[in-house]
UniProtKB/TrEMBL annotation:
A GO-annotated cellular component: plasma membrane
Protein name per Swiss-Prot or TrEMBL: ABC transporter ATP-binding protein
Organism of provenance: Hansschlegelia zhihuaiae
Domain ABC transporter as annotated: residue spans: 9-256
One Gene Ontology molecular-function label: ATP binding
InterPro entries listed in its UniProt record: AAA+_ATPase (IPR003593), ABC_AA/LPS_Transport (IPR051120), ABC_transporter-like_ATP-bd (IPR003439), ABC_transporter-like_CS (IPR017871), BCA_ABC_TP_C (IPR032823), P-loop_NTPase (IPR027417)
Keyword ATP-binding among UniProt keywords: yes
Amino acid sequence: MSAVPVPLLEARCVAKRYGGLAALDGCSLSLRAGEVTGLIGPNGAGKSTLLNAMTGLVRADAGTVLLDGRDVTALPAHRFAALGVARTFQIVRELGSLTVFENLLLAPRRQSGEGVAASLFARRKWWAQESVNAEKAKALLERVGLFRLADQPSGGLSGGQKKLLDLARALLLEPKLILLDEPGAGVAPPLKIELIRLVRELKAEGVSFGLVEHDMHLVGELCDHVHVMAEGRLLVSGTFEEVARDRRVVDAYLGVAA
Ligand SMILES: Nc1ncnc2c1ncn2[C@@H]1O[C@H](COP(=O)(O)OP(=O)(O)OP(=O)(O)O)[C@@H](O)[C@H]1O
């Protein structure tokens, strides 16, 4: 009998309250390595809160988060990068006055010089690291199709281009898992096609993905497995086709109690 593989990222009975509201009400679900996992559900279902609780941005009131079987529930957000987890946000946080290239270089990363400036040796190492990062950043801008805009202020980018910059920022960390919060929101159709192409290409290279998304076309095109959340809990899991025809899912979207 073959052993069941340990999930890449797993939430076990995670709860989070905001005053009287249970944003997460004992939510359990997992993401498998090598797959694109979708997280869907009506507005307010708790999707972003779960993503935040699974990456140290929100401290759960109860429950456990495991990464590769290791308990990371209390790990602060900045430690996830070193464990190979990167994420993007619903609203892209970019500094509009800086160029596209500068924004990419500001990304948090796993590098030896962070917080270390005391010795000359550390500084030399830092500069060496910086030039490696600059080369990587250029290559990533090529990859996401933004290289020709590298010297433009990022404030002038379209919604879709900002999402691609955010993805490039995540890729700078060379993550094994990328969590995308609404990558399709505010993105024009041609750039959605580019986004789909990139995610598929990265998946083929071994990167796993989790994505919170309302765009069902994107979910259907990309996701191997879909979790549907409602009222802070997991409602249904399966392939996109399976969950799309599940009556409970239709009811949850229509606001009917499941
Ligand atoms: N910091 C916060 N303070 C108070 N309430 C919050 C906070 N964050 C989330 N909530 C509430 O928790 C619930 C779940 O929110 P969350 O953003 O996780 O849902 P979601 O499924 O991602 O929704 P959407 O699809 O609209 O982004 C919502 O009712 C929301 O208003």
